[in-house]
Fold each of these.
Amino acid sequence: MASTATIVRRKIEGGPEDRLWTFRDFSSLPTNAVAKTLSRLEDKGVVDRLRKGVYYRPRTTRFGPTKADPVLVATSILDRKDVDWKPSGLALWNKLGLTTQVPAVSTVAVDRRIEIKNLKGMVRLLRVSSLRDITNEERAALDALRTLRFVPDTTPADAIRRLVDLCRTNVLSFARMTKAARREPPRVRALLGMIGTLLGEDDLTLSRLRASLNTTTVFKLGLADAFPEAHGWGIR
């Protein structure tokens, strides 16, 4: 029977380059023996130790060995800590057609407050309330509604029009976003209500959204001129 060291080495050397390895990849083996083997493989230059329990096998190119993707490093750490997460921010907004810009810093939405050392300036952690039962794209759409005026390379009105189109073509589920929005800021629920009105959603769904809002609150988002429906949701 092969030793732990042999199993670990064969799995890493037989696996793809440019990927992360953590103790979870060897969960059926003794942790201490796995740790010692990974340490020896680091000494031999097979893997790079990025932090405790996280190793990277680089790929050699004509420009030298590759570096680990900071997002993969961050999400592997989040997985180890049992933190729920979804990709968000500019990368997803670009994918959805909300902006043409690409991110210099990647954004990951997380369900609790947490810090990851040594990755500042490369990965931004955005704390949100709702991550489950929605897609990555729907989470990113809710995040766009949170910061509508600051989505780059577009206007709030154009961003709303794009989100309406995405709902109409079933890229986004209005129903799932509405359910997730129960724990979102009021302005998000108001914007979803306006989007639902534009989509012609049923009165029951819209009334539930409306009941979750303070009727005296005004959201100054610069949308009233573009959408007459905005007034009914306290949006100006």
Amino acid sequence: MASTIDEHAQSDISADVFAEGKAIRLAVSRSTHSGWDAAVDRADPIALLEESSVGRLPSLIPIRYGRMSASPFTFFRGAAIIMASDLGTSTPNTGIFAQVCGDCHLENFGVFATPERNIIFDINDFDETLPAPWEWDVKRLTASIHIAGRVIGLAEKQCMKAVLTAVRGYREQIRLCAGMTALEVWYSRVDAHVVAQQISDAALRRAAVKNGKTAPAYTHEMVADEYTEGVGKDRFIADKPPNLFHPPADNEVIVDAQQVMKRYRETLREDIAHLVGRYHLADLAVKVVGMGSIGTRCAVALLMAKNDDALLLQIKEARPSVLEDYAGKSRYADHGQRVVAGQRLMQAASDMFLGWTFSADGHQFYVRQLSDMKGSVQITAMSADDLTVYAKLCATVLAIAHARSADAAKIGGYVGTSETFDDAIAAFAAAYADQNDRDYHKFLKAIKTGRLEAKEG
């Protein structure tokens, strides 16, 4: 009988919260999310990019701009600060906060191993994570879908279909989460074999499946063999410029690496700290990563326990989230801790080596295992069908991630059961893709006129 009473109580609570979410439409109707009109006083996108480059390694900033110049999609990936400004100053806000990714685009999802060595599909980048309106993630994700569709040559109708499918997937999943218990939401995940069954992308299938079963495809031993040379105590990280190299002795990226690693161990769970303590720091090299992160301090650390026992960690600089000016400051003084806390809250399972640290010269970092059993898609090689399927998978995962920190019933009540919200967001995504095209051409002009320096790398 107690169980039945609890179920009724849960149902009543959910109905009340659904109603609260639905009531928000009176102040912020779902259709107000439709379209995009740039404000008259909209911030100069090039000035925002220049602002985001302050404090980065000067020698790598031109490489960042060079990589961003490849297409409107690569530009979008590297320009999170521009969309953060637009979302924060010129779009409606439901007032429902969740822990958001902050840079939610198609290439910030992928497959990776849980600590139990199961392979799952989830969000995999949290540099900009912060509590903020949940719809900001949805808008950035859907804009990325429409932009990616254009880059791979799809018709506008096909781009729109992929976006609509994604938003419907988000809406349906968030309402499913609203009917779950807190623990059911917490345990929800998308297994890699589901991705492999639905998408034909060869690289992602190889990462997710081996011999027909979910299995590791890129273990830490394979990573060590790829990134290092030598044997035993003489093992070292192999230079592979321009993406991996040892800096000159007078140009250290992490000035007190041994102490940085000591501080990192202090943030780990006791058993994991004990495990890491069995290793010693053998080598450190600069790694040029991603798109928006290029120029921030990032290193690969080679740790050795025995002659043939290597562990590679990535030490990545954590800077203030691009959302802070619009959603409020993080409650964490250390941005490495902000990233780690956000990742643990949003992901179904996180890297057991995830921790944070800082260097003597004031830079903050988070640390994670490098490339262990990870895989991602090549968006530019996708077909229209693959893009549509993949977009829905990403949106489904995003809904689960939001439900871990926000009230899914309130979001579910707001988005409702009709396609009103879907249509509004699809219209926004198409209009914002146009804005991104305009900003991209301004960016190329800034390079051509010499305002920004770009080079290959």
Amino acid sequence: MTDSAAAGIRFFKLEALGNDFVLIDARSTPFAPIPESVIRLADRRTGIGFDQMLILRPGVGALLAEVEIFNADGSPAEQCGNGMRAIAAWLDHGGELSSGAQLGTPAGPVALARHADRGYTTVLPGPRTLNPEALGLPAPHLPDEFTDWALISLGNPHLILNSDQPPSPASLARIVGILDKACWRGKVNVGLMHIDSDDTATLRVHERGAGPTPACGSAACAAAWALRDQRPSATPVAVAQPGGSLMVDLTSRPGHAVTTGPATVVFAGTIAFKGPMA
């Protein structure tokens, strides 16, 4: 895409629990960024700033749109739980959030709905367990206090570790550093979870391709699965992250994760590129 073709590309800044996004509606306007352009736009000083870029492409069949997801480092992602609610907020703002609305993602279809009290609800493909070997990784060698861990996929992989104490930025950074040295760098999202009660957990996440973020929706689903694996119940799990709390229901829709939480459209603007996009 050249300068003239890229002139006037409209973007929307969205957020959900402080996890922030740039959305570009490419259902009728071609847009194909190269990784370097995504990185440039993700810069919080010289660009727009975001954790993920969400690009809407024409949907197939009953799907309202297909979603392409890029992390801030330009790498592709398979799923973005908070991003799906952010798209729901944007569709609602534009009058497109109809009953039964669905998006296509690399991880599978996602259903969207407005929630009467808590923002928006999404129905994501459900969690499933992974073995490190499936990702070509060795078993993680962790300090003794982190013997309980689970590798869980929501389409994107999450390593969830139990912590005896509420997780801090320093404790998360320590674990990420250990995993980086063990060839896990950039391979998974890393979540440090403290179980507060049978139905609540506190979580901090280092997202693959974005770094520490205020919240990660798919990691919250993985953490809820890990909690329920240890403390079985049909009750939804409230997962608290620095950006706020997300409700995760793993039982009302078998095989799916139903998330409910806030999301907003922050502002809109126009991208003008001085170099090629692709």
